[in-house]
Amino acid sequence: MAQNMPRKYPHIITLSLFASRFDVMFILRRFSSQNEQQGVPDVCTLLKHASFLVPLSQEHLVIKFCQLMHHLLNQLKVIMDEQTLDVLLNYTASALKMCSTWTHSDVLLALSTVVYGNGPQCHQHLSDLLGEDGVLLLYSAPSQPNMELRRVALNCMANICLRIPGQPPLDDQYRGVCFRVFLTTLQSPKPPNTDELFYCMVIQAALKGLQCCLSGGKWKFNGGEELGSVLAILKRLMFQGAPGVSVEWPAVLYPAPLPQYEGLSAPKSAEPQKPSEPPKDNKKRKSRGKGKKTSTEGSRGDDGEEDDREAVSALQKGGGREGGRGEGESLSKPSAPSLYPSWKLNSSDSEFSDMEGNAQSKLRLNHGHVRQGALHCLLAVVKSVEKRTLYGYWSSFIPDSPTGGQPPLTLLTIILKDPSPKVRACALQVLSAMLDGSRQFLAVAEDTASPRTSYTPFSFSLATAIRELHRALSLALLAETAPQTLTQVIKCLAYLVANAPYHRLRPGLLSPLWKQMRPYVRHRDVNVRVSVLTLYGALVTTQAPFPEVQLLLRQPDSGSSSAGSFTPQDSALSWRQRDGTSSPSRTPVTPSQRSSHTHSPHILRTPGEEESSPPWLLQLCVSLVTQPREDQSDSEGAGTGGGAALEPSPIRLEALQDKTQLMCITVLLGLTYSENYLVKTAAVRALGVYILFPCLREDVMFVADTANTILATLEDRSTNVRAKAAWSLGNLTDTLIVNMESVGVDFQEELSDMLLLKMLQAATRASADKDRVKSNAVRALGNLLYFLRRSQLTRSAFQRPLEEAVRALVKTVQSEATMKVRWNACYALGKAFRNPALPLDSALWSCDAFSALCHVVTSCKNFKVRIKSAAALAVPARRSCYGDTKRFSCVWRSLATALENSEDTNDFLEYRYSASLRHTLSQALLHLLSLSQSQDMPALGQSLAGEEGKGIKEHLIRYLRAEEGGGEGAEGEKDAGGDGFNPQQRIGCLQQTLIRLKGLEAEGEGGGKEERGKEVVVSFLEDLTKTCEELSSCSAGFQKTET
């Protein structure tokens, strides 16, 4: 076989003959040099040939080959093909079966490298590895005495569970086996006579595996006990090795009852936690013990290393963090009060003279890695568990009781006291994930009134938790010096501000934070500056009372003049004159023009001029996005996060003067021509926000300029830019509809026909784009088809674009796109049907539109899409819009069939929309009856005469008596033009329909069939009306009797 070896791999012969003499690193160096000189070698071919050259009987050679396999795949980042993967898996699996136990550590190390991210492709070998007697289960069991084997086996299982983006997840059967092994490992106590350092490494491997399980696809916990067990063990490991923490941790955390979610049932325990009480396991305080930190812990940057070095002297003195948790926080009082934590104080470097060989420092380093891994797992749990389920566990991780007394051990304890900046950053990421999307939950919080003395309301406890988060994060902001962690603190504050209901809280939270953030605007780290702008964006769009926000915006800039030197009066930034005499500037301001005013010295203004100047925050944003970048490398070093700094926040233009509004508009229109796609994305999104403001949406010139800008960005090669442009186009067309209904024809006539035609064609093209773009493109199409006037629709230039637009909507409704896209397409057709000028009765595409909606209303699995299609079918206000008798009867049959099957679903999540679906379908059927003519009577009579008619009657009675509906059904009713009808009004409309049908006269040769059909329909409606009146009388009599 050696004769067939490729000549470019002569070192394979060396490996087979002299591997017992030569170290594997020698061969690795040869590979590295070959990689640099000749390019990346064919490592897969090499490893396959080597697996045949190294027999399993030569165990020393097997070890060397496994080491080589591990180093090559790791260093060269090789992506293996299926054949190589199968060969190496067979080799390592055979080695585990045939070789001695002393070789298994290296074999498992090689196996973990081979299976890294390839778990789904290893299905043929998973039964041998993870089966009932699998080798990985044997070596990873808590009874395994060899801790190194146990660690490597757990690491191998973690790599099997790891999911690479774009690949399918691991089979649930094997993922569940691995999950139970990881959880059992974390719950098992440390074996006796086991070195603490090795045990920490085992725990790290188990935490890594648990994180891969939770992040490798959708995961469902088996009941609340399992979720509570995972959260309990993660909370214990969050404080692994923390000095002074010695508490009895519970085995399971139980959720606290949440009064705002009445439908949720929480598992009961012997002593359930109450929202107003600290958790059971938080009886003792965390103290600061002795300990050193290695420089590796702060390896993210020099600042992190300095932080860890500065931690030592205060830690060895046992000092607490005075400002961290309030009174009584530390076990020993510091000599002088300080807002900075003990681990920030300077210390002598002499204590680190021999850290490399110090076992205690290595142990502390590994304890920090355990805490970091536990927080990563907790972050994965937060992202995989439904928000409403997680709210019950908030009190275990976020303090929800007033400060004072013994503080509980929570995420804030880690944020304020942990000596490692990486661990603190992880805790902040977890807290940010918990706060993200919690607006509905936090909306209950209120402390404007004094609480009752007998008990603490849940709303007051939640408000106290918000105040405690503000206090702790503000202290962390003062104390933190590591730039990466400081960035996370500010981001966490942004999530808190974006979700907290400040209008229900006592004032005094936002103003101090606003002032506290001012120095960080000029921080030397670009990521900190980006996060500060994100926080300010959250502050100006928060739910706080508007006068408070306006006051904060109007506060003068007390800092340096570098950010306040921008003068909006400069003619280079004027957008256009309000009288329309000058044309808009389509070209961004040149760098020379920018520098002429952005770097001008600070000019003293009179009090009157100060009052009329723009807010300092607006001046800062404008100067940041218009002036040339002074430090190119620093700005580019921000990576993708740098785009957030350039995104103009939707500041409330209503509060600003005209010239300030013009400055904002000018900047945004210019930024849409930026070469940076992040800038372009943010700018076009901001235009989509501005177009919704009442102060701008009726300005025809601004609408036209915004439309032209959006149309240009819709052709961008970046999907993100096109998606935001489509979203903004949807908002702009929403504005057109609002203006049409409020201003009237005058606004429609002022808009250029050519511009509307371009918008229609651009939206049609975008409807064939990716789903992210298509979702809003079809929304824009529906609005445009509703907005166009008869004089425009009859023009030859609009005929073909009109047909293409409708067919694009029909194609989207019938496609396999996401349900959100199909929902928007059905909504768009309903919008279009509301335009009386649309030729529904004569156009060729009309039949396709109705057929698509009829198909969706009966067959779509998603009930919300069915609701929108039924609402769209009920929109046309004239019988002629439904076409001939055949099409009308097709629509009727589809609606009747959908009503009959409105409860048939295998998905419980869809079942909750069934009442709304029946509500909309019933309204649509009555709408068809109100428009029906004599030629429709035979088909209607045939439908209402049999069993189908009895089912329809039952549903119509519920609708007429308002026994069910709302939700999505209310939306459908609004689109159909019958929103807000009470039972009396619905019965009144039914009686009018009955009177009209009685007056119909049969026409043509089929008069007999039409008359018989009319008799059936009239009898059906009379019986329906009589039943509803009788039920109403009985209900009224019953209520009178009770009174």
Automatic annotation (TrEMBL):
Coiled coil: none
Basic and acidic residues composition bias: residue spans: 319-330
One Pfam family recorded for the sequence: DUF4042
Chain intervals with Basic residues compositional bias: 282-293
Domain of life: Eukaryota
Record InterPro entries: ARM-like, ARM-type_fold, DUF4042, HEAT6
Composition-biased stretches (Polar residues): 557-574
Gene3D superfamilies on file: Leucine-rich Repeat Variant
DUF4042 domain: residues covered: 370-549
Record's compositionally biased regions (Low complexity): 581-595
Stretches for region Disordered: 264-342, 557-613
UniProt-recorded name of the protein: HEAT repeat-containing protein 6
Organism: Lates calcarifer (Barramundi)
Lineage: Eukaryota, Metazoa, Chordata, Craniata, Vertebrata
GN (gene name): HEATR6
